[in-house]
Amino acid sequence: MDAAHIRNFSIIAHIDHGKTTLSDRLLHMTGTIATRDMSDQLLDAMDLERERGITIKAHPVTMLYKARNGETYELNLIDTPGHVDFAYEVSRSLSACEGALLVVDAAQGVEAQTVANFHLASKQNLEIIPVINKIDLGHANVPQAKQQLEDVLAIPAELAIPCSAKQGIGIEDILEAIVARVPPPKPTGAASLQALAFDSYFDTYKGVVTHVRVFNGEIKPGMMIKLVHSGKNYEVKEVGSFNPKPYTREKLETGETGYITANIKTAAEVKMGDTITDARNPSGVLPGFKEIHPMVFSGIYPINTADYEQLKSSMAKLKLNDSAFVYSTETSIALGFGFRCGFLGLLHMEIVQERLRREYDMDIIATYPSVVYKVTMTDKTEKEVDNPAFLPDVTYIEKIEEPMVKAFVICPNENIGDMMALISEKRGAVDHTETLDAKRVMLTALVPLNEILIDFHDRIKSITRGFGSMDYEPADYQESDMVKLDMLVNTEPMDAFSCIVHRSKAEGRGRTLAEKLKEVIPRQQFAVKIQAAIGGKIVASETVSAFRKDVTAKCYGGDVSRKRKLLEKQKEGKKRMKAIGNVNIPQEAFIEVLKA
Q1: Which regions of 378-498 does DSSP assign to beta strands (E)?
Q2: Distance from C-alpha of 105 to C-alpha of 183, rounded to nearest angstrom
Q3: Between vectors from CA 43 to CA 66 and to CA 162, what angle results, nearest 5°?
Q4: What residues contact 452, with CB distance under 8 A and at least 6 apart?
């Protein structure tokens, strides 16, 4: 189709504002999906996506729409995730589009991720069409949502299209607005083919299937292409588009979105955001490519050590589908052989673990998540540490820097005090506050990434009774007083429980871990000391009392010194046993503590 009749757009919104329902309705309205094939969350292919009601992977789909002016247009939609952990997925998808539908829930108004995604789209200079969804709800407040669009995002209220994706109200107006407002794709004017690889997945029969957006030239089977960043050449075997299932086409031309297969064996060869060009006549690189770096690290081990090889092959398969997931082998004295894995954030970590359990039937255990610290040594060399086991001795460390994030928290006015207290408890500092409307404020704060890993999001939700929302973006590194907290059981360090924490929090964390370990370590014939230590200093201690045989049972009276003698003898035996005794901590105990 000629470029003047092509429109590339994506749908962006805060999590749960109705993106996926709207994309379902657009597919139905344009006749891409027959009524009998309709189902909810049509573009969400994974069970996990359907269950949690979130989008994890971006999904492209091509629709043909006959507009009111009688002309037929090819609309290429890329459905994007809403959660902050998948922001890179969103930015790649947006670089393949010329326009974006910004969906706002009429009942909830502008939320934290609405703001973040709006800025992402503005950076790419996209035409933004605001859509106010869920107007059929009893408590929908359309005037307030329009007011927030003007006040928070500086978008004129009259541009907003009210709709209800569930009821199908206003869908035609949205399609007309896409045709009228989104600019058609323009060729870049390069000498030959230029296409952007914005996603990929692995097919057992075809190899790696790469999602592409053609910016210049055309791509067809039999053509030799070159991937600029990996520098490799391939022959194209098949090209096509999605509706939502893949179908083959003769070629993809300027402005079109689809997929290509080219006998690529591993997904690692296709870097996301890479430029595809003609191997015989290469042209320049498209902007927007950047290597993706994990933010959160955690160890993943098989519960049954015999499953190690199976876990290894499962992770390799998962890596094909998720380019942001990285892993390398590591061993632990307590847990045996396993992997050090890197994730974009906490939700990403949760999703990967859940997929390993479900799709690959693996029984796994994950260690406490940590972040990447920059350690400057006394000889001025710098090293990055993502595992407490590799933190050098204190005497060789000059300073430790931890990663910070810029957090945007939106909450009701009455919770602002509690919110500020929570941020300062997490060692954060509020930069500034902004009033969004009569009921809500937005706090911008600088918080250490390490502090928001575990329960920050849950605490926001419980403080604001579900009305708060949060989004964050990586900021710079900052020097901090970080220490390594070791857990000793019978004076033996347990590497599975060590972690890097701020000195002010070390004692509390040590005490919590010691109490938990006291509950799960089985009693021995001798007393077992559990200690939390920073270097050589013990900051918390608990004791698991010993089993004790009643040695005085055979004394049926007589002098008290006889009983004393027997008890002293027992005490000596316990002391000797403690010196040579080993504490075997069962696997279940590790699992219990790490779950907590």
Answers
A1: 382-385, 397-412, 429-435, 440-448, 469-480, 482-489, 492-493
A2: 26
A3: 55
A4: 405, 407, 426, 472
pLDDT value, residue 579: 58
CA of 120: how far to CAs of 126, 363, 575, in Å?
9, 38, 65
CB 225 within 8 A of CB 193: yes
Q: What is residue 46's predicted lDDT score, i.e. its pLDDT? A: 47
Q: What is the pLDDT of residue 83?
A: 56
Q: HEC string of 244-260?
A: CCEEEECCECCCCEEEE
Reported as type and span, the H/E element at residue 513 is helix 503-520
Q: What is the pLDDT of residue 44?
A: 43
Domains and CATH numbers, the chain: 3-181 (3.40.50.300), 194-278 (2.40.30.10), 296-367 (3.30.70.870), 373-480 (3.30.70.240), 484-595 (3.30.70.2570)
Can you give the pLDDT at residue 252? 85
* Tokens 């060692």 found at: 427
Sites in the chain below the pLDDT cut of 50: 41-53
As a whole-number percent, the residues of the chain with pLDDT over 70 amount to 86
Q: Indicate the SS3 state at residue 165.
A: coil
Task: Find how far residue 311's CA is from the centre of its chain.
Answer: 21
With 0-12 CB in 10 A as exposed, 13-18 as middle and 19+ as buried, what is 466?
exposed
User: Strands, E, within 204-344: which ranges?
Assistant: 207-216, 224-227, 232-235, 238-242, 246-249, 257-261, 275-278, 296-302, 326-332, 336-343
Q: What are phi and psi of 493, to 5 degrees?
A: -70, 140
Check residue 45 and give its pLDDT: 44
Whether 450 contacts 404, CB under 8 Å: no
Q: What is the pLDDT of residue 533?
A: 87
58, exposed or middle or buried, with CB in 10 Å at 0-12, 13-18, 19+?
buried
The separation between CA 17 and the C-alpha centre of its own chain, rounded to angstroms, equals: 19
- Tokens standing for 505? 């929090």
Torsion of CA 341, 342, 348, 349, to 10 degrees: 40
